[in-house]
């Protein structure tokens, strides 16, 4: 197939509840949808997920737009693509910028599946139709409000809760929630807010029966994580550190973690994500699917990918209404008894509500033959 046209929606969706992490507060999510059309008129959709601030990792939505338009589209525009696995090879000469790459790579996977009349999960040997899901809960210093929020999620059936923490907001909220829900599968995520000096403090987390502690230290730090993992009973999970399969190999050989939060966009797309799944399977590393506050498009992709047998630990794949008043799909993604169904249409399996997209977004064309 050949890419003949790429259209885009630049969208801003207001969040139902502002989301606070160790590094900042988010009130709306900006994202782009890329619509990639082939020579036969088939169309695939990909989501561009980075934030507006370079505070989670270094990519931002603005830097990603430049990389896409100036550097990635020229690498695919005149090429006959036989299989979407070729896209990550074509992108190899652009260093880093995984989320920019992923937006186009996942759109081309969706396009390929639609062209072949298949659901995307077929290509991952996805077997499950319903995915157990968890929820990530932002920093809420009013612990009564925090408890109420989590009580609501537990009542909706969310099978795992992840609390965001930072220095000064860790032991107390964990203790309060653990007391109220003694059997809840619970974990925490620090988004790099601690340093090696906090080891003694972090060791206290061992007493709360946490499933794991996500990304306590800096995004490029494998050594201090390895030191902490040696001293901690609780599993460490790496998120920001993991951009490539090589990062997983490094983390595994140093003992920096026992679990990987895999986000398709953070590793440059589906092809690299599949390699990481294979590696984790071989090495018995716990791998689970993370999220980036995706709209329905990225959420649908995550559900397709999470249909693989290996994803038994509930991912950060909540229902659309956990984040947004309105999603940009014709059918919102809903939770039932703690599970979300994998959309069963072609490709990622969902269709766009153009009306909603135009209400919250701007449409343009970024490439035509
Ligand atoms: O660290 O996993 C993270 C959201 C945005 C950026 C980073 C993270 C998160 C989440 C929520 O924790 C994931 C989601 O529910 O989409
Ligand atoms: Mg994280």
UniProtKB/TrEMBL annotation:
<dbReference type="InterPro" id="IPR036849">
    <property type="entry name" value="Enolase-like_C_sf"/>
</dbReference>
<protein>
    <recommendedName>
        <fullName>o-succinylbenzoate synthase</fullName>
        <ecNumber>4.2.1.113</ecNumber>
    </recommendedName>
</protein>
<feature type="binding site">
    <location>
        <position position="189"/>
    </location>
    <ligand>
        <name>Mg(2+)</name>
    </ligand>
</feature>
<dbReference type="Pfam" id="PF02746">
    <property type="entry name" value="MR_MLE_N"/>
</dbReference>
<comment type="similarity">
    <text>Belongs to the mandelate racemase/muconate lactonizing enzyme family. MenC type 2 subfamily.</text>
</comment>
<dbReference type="Pfam" id="PF13378">
    <property type="entry name" value="MR_MLE_C"/>
</dbReference>
<dbReference type="InterPro" id="IPR029065">
    <property type="entry name" value="Enolase_C-like"/>
</dbReference>
<feature type="active site" description="Proton acceptor">
    <location>
        <position position="263"/>
    </location>
</feature>
<keyword id="KW-0456">Lyase</keyword>
<comment type="pathway">
    <text>Quinol/quinone metabolism; 1,4-dihydroxy-2-naphthoate biosynthesis; 1,4-dihydroxy-2-naphthoate from chorismate: step 4/7.</text>
</comment>
<feature type="binding site">
    <location>
        <position position="214"/>
    </location>
    <ligand>
        <name>Mg(2+)</name>
    </ligand>
</feature>
<dbReference type="GO" id="GO:0016854">
    <property type="term" value="F:racemase and epimerase activity"/>
</dbReference>
<feature type="domain" description="Mandelate racemase/muconate lactonizing enzyme C-terminal">
    <location>
        <begin position="143"/>
        <end position="235"/>
    </location>
</feature>
<dbReference type="GO" id="GO:0043748">
    <property type="term" value="F:O-succinylbenzoate synthase activity"/>
</dbReference>
<keyword id="KW-0479">Metal-binding</keyword>
<keyword id="KW-0474">Menaquinone biosynthesis</keyword>
<dbReference type="InterPro" id="IPR013342">
    <property type="entry name" value="Mandelate_racemase_C"/>
</dbReference>
<dbReference type="InterPro" id="IPR013341">
    <property type="entry name" value="Mandelate_racemase_N_dom"/>
</dbReference>
<comment type="pathway">
    <text>Quinol/quinone metabolism; menaquinone biosynthesis.</text>
</comment>
<dbReference type="GO" id="GO:0009234">
    <property type="term" value="P:menaquinone biosynthetic process"/>
</dbReference>
<feature type="active site" description="Proton donor">
    <location>
        <position position="164"/>
    </location>
</feature>
<dbReference type="InterPro" id="IPR029017">
    <property type="entry name" value="Enolase-like_N"/>
</dbReference>
<comment type="function">
    <text>Converts 2-succinyl-6-hydroxy-2,4-cyclohexadiene-1-carboxylate (SHCHC) to 2-succinylbenzoate (OSB).</text>
</comment>
<dbReference type="GO" id="GO:0000287">
    <property type="term" value="F:magnesium ion binding"/>
</dbReference>
<dbReference type="InterPro" id="IPR047585">
    <property type="entry name" value="MenC"/>
</dbReference>
<feature type="binding site">
    <location>
        <position position="239"/>
    </location>
    <ligand>
        <name>Mg(2+)</name>
    </ligand>
</feature>
<keyword id="KW-0460">Magnesium</keyword>
<dbReference type="InterPro" id="IPR010197">
    <property type="entry name" value="OSBS/NAAAR"/>
</dbReference>
């Amino acid at each position: 197939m050949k890419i003949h046209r790429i259209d885009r929606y630049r969208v801003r969706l207001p969040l139902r509840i502002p989301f606070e992490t160790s590094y900042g507060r988010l009130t709306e999510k900006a994202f782009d949808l890329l619509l990639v059309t082939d020579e036969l008129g088939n169309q695939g959709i990909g989501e561009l997920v980075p934030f507006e601030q370079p505070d989670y990792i270094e990519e931002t939505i603005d830097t990603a737009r430049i990389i896409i338009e100036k550097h990635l589209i020229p690498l695919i525009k005149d090429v006959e693509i036989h299989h979407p696995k070729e896209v990550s090879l074509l992108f190899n000469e652009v260093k880093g910028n995984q989320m920019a790459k992923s937006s186009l790579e996942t759109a081309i996977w969706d396009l390929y599946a639609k062209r072949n009349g298949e659901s995307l999960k077929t290509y991952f040997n996805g077997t499950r139709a319903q995915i157990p899901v968890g929820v990530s809960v932002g920093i809420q210093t009013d612990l009564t409000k925090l408890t109420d929020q989590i009580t609501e999620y537990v009542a909706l059936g969310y099978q795992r809760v992840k609390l965001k923490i930072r220095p000064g907001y860790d032991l107390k909220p964990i203790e309060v929630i653990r007391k109220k829900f003694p059997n809840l599968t619970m974990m925490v995520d620090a988004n790099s807010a601690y340093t090696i000096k906090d080891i003694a403090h972090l060791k206290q987390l061992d007493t709360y029966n946490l499933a794991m502690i996500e990304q306590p230290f800096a995004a490029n730090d494998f050594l201090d994580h390895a030191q902490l993992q040696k001293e901690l009973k609780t599993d460490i999970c790496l998120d920001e550190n993991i951009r490539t399969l090589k990062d997983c190999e490094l983390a595994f050989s140093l003992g920096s973690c026992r679990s990987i939060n895999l986000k398709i966009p953070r590793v440059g797309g589906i092809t690299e994500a599949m390699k990481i799944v294979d590696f984790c399977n071989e090495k018995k590393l716990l791998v689970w699917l993370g999220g980036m506050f995706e709209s329905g498009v990225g959420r649908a992709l995550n559900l397709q990918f999470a249909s693989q047998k290996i994803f038994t630990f509930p991912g950060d794949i909540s229902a659309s209404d956990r984040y947004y008043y309105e999603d940009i799909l014709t059918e919102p993604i809903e939770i039932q008894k703690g599970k979300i169904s994998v959309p069963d249409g072609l490709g990622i399996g969902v269709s766009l509500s153009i009306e909603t997209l135009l209400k919250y977004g701007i449409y343009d064309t970024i490439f035509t033959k």
